[in-house]
Amino acid sequence: MNSMSKSFEQVLEEVRGKRILVANRGIPARRICRSITEMFDAKAIMTATDVDKTSPATSGANELLMLGADPRAYLDLDLIIREAKANDVVAIHPGWGFLAEDDSFPAKCKEAGIIFIGPDQEPMRVLGNKVAVRKLAIEQGVPVVPGSEGAVSIPEAREIAKEIGFPVMLKAEGGGGGRGIYEVYQEEDLENAFSKASALAQASFGNPRLYVEKLLTSVRHIEIQVIADHYGNVFCLDERDCSVQRNHQKLIEITPSPWPKYSKELRARLKEYARRLVAAVGYYSLATVEFLVSSDGTPYLIEVNTRLQVEHGITECRYGIDLVEEQIAIAFGAELRLSEEKTKPYQWAMQCRINCEDPQKNFEPNSGRITRYVSPGGQGIRIDSCVGDGYRFPSNYDSAASLLIAYGNSWDKVVALMKRSLREYMIGGLKTTIPFHRKIIHHTKFLEADYDTNFVRQHYAELMDYSDREPDFLRMTRLVAEISALGYNKHVQLGEYRGREDKRVGRFAEAVLPEVTSWFEPHFSRKMDRDAILDTLRTDREAGIIHMTDTTTRDITQSNSGNRFRLAEDRIIGPSLDKCGFFSLENGGGAHFHVAMLANMTYPFTEAEEWNRFAPNTLKQILIRSTNVLGYKPQPKNVMRLTGEMINEHYEIIRCFDFLNHVENMRPFAEVAMNSTRNIFEPAISLSWAKGFNVERYLNVTDEIVAMCADAGGVSRKKAERMIILGLKDMAGVCPPRFMRELITSIRAKYPELVIHSHRHYTDGLFVPTMGAAAEAGAHIVDVAVGASVRWYGQGEVLSTAAYIEDEIGLSTHLDKDMIRATNFQLKQIMPYYDRYTAPYFQGIDHDVTRHGMPGGATSSSQEGALKQGYIKLLPYMLKFLEKTRKVVRYHDVTPGSQITWNTAFLGVTGAFKRGGEREVRRLLNILDIVTLCSEDDLTDLEREARLALYRDSNDAFRNLLLGKFGKLPLGFPADWVYQSAFGKGWKDAIKERTEASPLTTLADVDLEAEKKALQSRLHRQPTEEEFVMYLNHPGDAIKTIEFCERFGDINNLPVDIWFEGLEKGEVLNFQGICKKPHRMRILDISEPDERGMVVVRYILDSEIMSHQVKVAEPETGTRDSREMADPSNEYHVGSPSNGDLWVTHVHPGDRVKAGEELFNISIMKQEKAVLSPVDATVRRVIKSAKYTEDKKMVPVVEGELIVELGPDAGVCPTCKFDVPGEGCNFCSNCGQKL
Amino acid sequence: MDGGPDRLCALHPSWDEDIRFFGPWEREGGMWRSASDCASSIVVVEECETTMETARRLVKDGLLGEWGAVVGGVQTGGRGQLRRPWVSLPGNLHASVLLPDPPAGGAWAEALSALLPLVVGYMACVALEELGVSPELKWPNDILQSGRKVGGMLIEERDGKVILGLGLNLAGCPAEAEMREDHSAPAGRLAIPSLPGGALTLLEALVSRGKSVYAIMLDEIPPTRFIAMIERRLAWMGRTILVREGNEAPFEATVSGLSPDGGLVVLRGEEETVLYSGSIFPLGVP
Questions:
Q1: Catalytic: which of A134, A220, A246, A307?
Q2: Contact B217 A1189 (CB under 8 A)
Q3: Of A203, A1165, A1170, the CB nearest to B262
Q4: Given an 8 Å threshold on Cβ–Cβ distance, is A1165 in contact with B263?
Q5: Which of chain A's ends, N or C, has fewer CB atoms near its CB within 10 Å?
Q6: What pLDDT shows up at residue A976?
Q7: Rounded Cα gap, residues A1169 and A1160, in angstroms
Q8: CA A1056 to CA A606: how far, in whole Å?
Q9: What pLDDT sits at residue A1122?
Q10: Could you report the per-residue pLDDT of B75-91, keeping only the tens digit for each?
Q11: A636-692 tens-digit pLDDT
């Protein structure tokens, strides 16, 4: 022992009770304080700014040394030393970061008589300076990366680059930690790169000087931890492999290196180099010597870190030592205790840096409240963290949240431990790098240790492909909290349908199914192929047996309430329906697909797949809308095909209709289905009952269908007749029994082998006799539903229809009626919730449907819409308009035609009402009467002029219909005056433009790759095939559903009462998460709303107390609720381009503005944005206005908020040529001329 | 006289050197365009209402490209934000610069619009630092030197074109009595240890430096790191200030940093609030 030296024990004695300051924060501060208090029994004092004074890291300290409000105070060296001195501090540890590498720190400590726990100034300066250490290395025979000696000029750089060869790096002299590095691959780029890199260095580090180094393209980052004392004892510990980096920032550190090429010889060499450097400058304390090792095992020194390092913990685990303790002891003069003999490695260790960053958003730092913190633990895990439950992670400092270390006796063990602990680790409320680490640790290349520092860059897309989600059951309880606080579920899109205190339907218990004993043998199963199924239908019909399709879970609930069941209810009712003996179950398609996303927050095909699991026997049936498939407008062929393939996978019977009976529109589906032996194509004829739509016409359509199917399947017509089912779709419910009898008889006569499936709605009240007539005339299958779900606008009831067919007609059915009764009882337990919350205003037979023709659910929903918009008094006129317009423009009353007709009527009538009140409306209907009753020749010129008002208010869908964009109109284009009315001045062009070709021939294919990319960038991950198909059909609602599911999980794990009503305080909800584990939730309290309109729901989930904030009202101050947003698709709506302050508006209502004229100006952070008029127009409304220069008042506005509403120029007065202020004026404001 | 904008020399002696250095001059309407070999075009107008309007007109007519600048000798109606008057003393720098269109892709495509006021403030700081000044930035972009406001900036966007207005008190500053009553920092004159000329020289330094800083930032520095870089230059960190926001009652708070979208984060009691508008006034002694 050196005469001056002390033993470790002596130092222990010396330091006991003394005050040691850690001039740092967060993880390093806590880590170091722990060592200070553990062994030395010293007083650990930690610096803290106001932001940090209550942070979890401070728990490690005995005392805080407050640095004040400036968050940058950790950099204020003089302040820290001054305060330390005033507080009797004997030693200061700088930690890492902040001042740890400032070589004036040890000097100033010395000056103040304080021990600096670190190296001396001079050795620190030499080893810490990249240029100096390089020089030293060359002297000491330590290999360095070839490059310039010190900073260079451009010509020098060129010279050196030539010498060492490209690629090279330009490195900032003042840079560090991987920052300020610029790569140059060829000589041509050098000049440009140099000036950029220099400017960058100046901007980042205040020093523009650069030096040149060879760029090593495939290297590992390997470093040696060294510890040395005052007496020349140096000990080198085994390497740490820090090759997993992103932009030179370390992410994962491992010791020893798992790299298969890493050898004992290399380890010895690196240790020897490290020892030489440290010894050469008489360095003591901890240091890390960093090397790059090329793929052939050649090492190059890059730099020396003269401080404790973030990744020191893995070395401690490898050796079972405490480096900080040693470092402190050495600072106080102890002799180094570590030596080759005594200090042997025996473990593997790995560290993941857990940062509050969002990897999927380019590692953007995250700050905010940590709402949940579950730390991993158990065997082989060490955590150094600075966060905890409820901590508000500040934005002022770096994003390090914790260092997670796993250690064990082999690489495999360490990996297994790390996998497990990353799975256990939960940090909620903000984004962290945990899921990203999970991806790395599962990557094969990582496990094989076969990578270099480019690992993250090379596998970026793969590593980013994850969803960062908390456990589903936790996410779902937040939804329950939200529904409970609001009293209603805003996601079902039914408005505020109940309040929190309102009476409930009550708790939903498992719906009981009465026991049924039965020997029923069904005639069909999903195991049969197409021919077997169709043959059975034909033989059964020969024998007088009529089969039935059940629509309980699709069309009927859809039509009656617009909100068909969730998958949760389907799971209850589906297994029972499966046993009733139905030919098929219609469980998908139509609006069902859209509603799955829109209101039920469920993936439609995932749902279909599950149906086939819980109801495995009965055939499944879907309804698709020819070219519109599952949407509301024609889809290009490639989208149809993609969707079609997914449909065929989950449904056996594909019913397809076209509202124009334009048979070509169904062809892509016919092609897919006709060429499958499992799927049965069911093209359906859309039925109306009106002049011109007679039996002969529908027979023609049947001919076209058979011919098209024959063509699509490459078979004869006779063969095609045997391969398909013909659907008859009376969606409005208007065709009377005699008509159906006549129609089906005729079809059967012409096509005796063709299977006929009759579908209609109940609206006219004649469902049962009509289906009876259909059956009698030869239909094979009729659509029905189970009793408790039957209302007026969907299908009729199964048992009554069966009774009529059996009793009255004398045919038979094949159903398990007891099972149907039992299912009906089960259904009765579910329906009250849907009836209470989703039923429409109008509920009842509406025989007027035979006049107005509004089909199914549209009967009630459209009339309800008129009522809600305050037009109930105009409703009779609208219905009248509907009745008459159907004689002018002729097509069928099914989706989307029915919507187009309704909108045309609604817009026509309300438009007339706005122009001239009820008198104008009556005039409009009067002229509509005249044009439908009189022939063209009988009309007067005045009447011809007047009829142009009929379609002036129609919308684009109606105009597109007239142009033939949906397909060929069944009875040809309407008269020219209709175009004149709908298109105004451009009507002749419209007539030229119209076409009778199928939209399929002109719709360009969608660029699927581009669409997928768009979705991917939106989701920040790879979408699934199903998500992609959802997105192609309904982009907005698909994204909404995907985001909802990411946020709340699978809502089908919630019972129906909770879904509609939420949970009452004190009530218990037992539910299962996705992995079937049972969970229990109880709400403790729902607070009163605060001034921001927020309530806090406190609840117990299993054994944790959780809280969730829900916005239940608008903030008290401010007028947010009256905030009107600009409609981005309306060019007359001019909104605010960003959040900010409106400080001047230049226009007033009635002003005429030219395109490009400034309307108003928004100021944000001294940035003034002029908002210009997009068009020549008249100002209709100025929603918010300001004149800051006069009254010094600004008006806060939000992005997209409507500020000015423009309208089309109303033109000039015909008499005096004065500008007419707006469309609402009936008289010229200048001369009084009636306009 | 066709030699150049010589009338300017009568305004303030500092113009002499500049006019010679940036010559020769080409006459263009009532203005002069420097034909010297500098980084971007400089147009000088001896007298105008405000360089903002002059620049706007030149941009509209296609006569001013990216980073092109209009420098005014005398402004008869100089303005700051919200049409507040800006006192234009002879010899001071009053200029308007056309900023480049925002990048179409990359991290800055979305971020720039919100951060632009800070970006230009940062550009000016870096350029001044190279001239030996240690400026501080009062959020979002007032230039302070030793606690006094020595310059201000204004950004006006119209029709997708963004013009930066710069006012730097090089020769003199308005007297206390001339200042708006609720000004937040006293006015001061910008002292530059190593400026070899006058307003034009300063402008040229600002533009050429600004241009490269801007290009590099957009290429190399992610917005989040930029926020950290600018925080270092932010005035009044940790200090108590009075915040006057809109028409609300003013409140006391402590400056604590910047939000990722450039707002000023202040601590109001325990609560963090982010400001995007309003004025801040320092309270008490630092």
A1: A307
A2: no
A3: A1165
A4: yes
A5: N
A6: 95
A7: 8
A8: 20
A9: 61
A10: 988 888 888 888 888 88
A11: 888 888 898 899 999 999 999 999 999 999 998 899 889 888 999 999 999 999 989
Give the tokens for residue A1189.
Answer: 């220069």
Task: At A42, list the tokens.
Answer: 């010293």
User: What's the rounded Cα separation, in Å, for the pair A837 and A859?
Assistant: 19
Same domain, A78 and A186: no
Amino acid at B245: E
Q: What mean pLDDT is predicted for residues B262-284? A: 82
Instruction: In whole angstroms, give the CA distance from residue B75 to residue B50.
Output: 5
Task: Give yes or no: residues A1137 and A1035 share one domain.
Answer: no
What is the average pLDDT across B117-142?
89
SS3 content of chain A, % helix, strand, coil (to 5): 40, 20, 35
Report the residue from B117, B257, B276 with minimal CB separation from A71: B257
Subunit contact A1165:B140, Cβ cutoff 8 A? yes
Residues of A in contact with B219 (CB under 8 A): 196
Mean pLDDT across A718-743: 96
Q: For domain B240-282, say whether CATH 2.30.30 is its number.
A: yes
CATH topology of domain B7-231: BirA Bifunctional Protein; domain 2 (3.30.930)
Alpha helix locations (H) across A1071-1141? none
For residue A1084, give Cα distances in angstroms to A502, A1048, A1067, A1081, A1101. Answer: 19, 21, 9, 10, 10
Cα(A520)–Cα(A526) distance, integer angstroms: 17
Residues A814 and A915 in one domain: no
More confident: B177 or A709: A709
3-class SS string, B15-75: HHHHHHHCCCEEEECCEEEECCCCCCCEEEEEEECCHHHHHHHHHHCCCCCCCCEEEEEEE
* Strand partners for A690: A693
- Average pLDDT in the A688-714 region? 95
Chain A residues interacting with chain B (CB cutoff of 8 angstroms): 49-51, 68-73, 195-196, 199-200, 202-204, 206, 362, 364-365, 395-396, 1138-1141, 1143-1144, 1156, 1158, 1163-1170, 1172, 1188-1189, 1193-1196
Residue A313 has pLDDT above 90, yes or no: yes
Classify residue A353 as exposed, middle or buried by CB count within 10 Å of its CB (0-12, 13-18, 19+). buried
List A537's β-bridge partners, or say none.
Answer: none
CA distance A847 to A1175: 48
* Residue A564 known to be catalytic: no
For residue A178, what pLDDT is reported? 57
| ipTM of the complex model | 0.86
pLDDT higher at A388 or A1221: A388
Per DSSP, the residues of A335-400 read PP---TTT-----EEEEEEEESEEGGGTTEE--EE--EEE---STTEEEEES--TT-EE-SSS--E
Q: Does pLDDT of A3 surpass 80?
A: no
DSSP A507-551: PPP-------------S--TTS-HHHHHHHHHHHHHTTEEEEEE-
Strand, helix or coil for residue A222: strand
The count of other CB atoms within 10 Å of the CB of residue A840 is: 18
Q: Are A36 and A22 in contact (CB under 8 A)?
A: yes
As a whole number of angstroms, the distance between CA A304 and CA A270 comes to 13
Q: Assess whether A905 and A959 both reside in one domain.
A: yes
Query: Residue B251: which pLDDT band, with cuts at 50, 70 and 90?
Result: confident
Q: What is the pLDDT of residues A1052-1091, one digit of tens each?
A: 999 999 999 999 999 999 999 888 899 999 999 999 988 8
Residue A231 lies in a domain: no
Please state whether A601 falls in left (phi above 0), alpha (psi between -120 and 50) or beta.
left
Amino acid, res. A851: R
Enclosing domain of residue A1034: 1008-1048
Q: How far apart are CA A497 and CA A599, in angstroms?
A: 14
Amino acid letter at A926? Answer: N
pLDDT, residue A576, reads 96
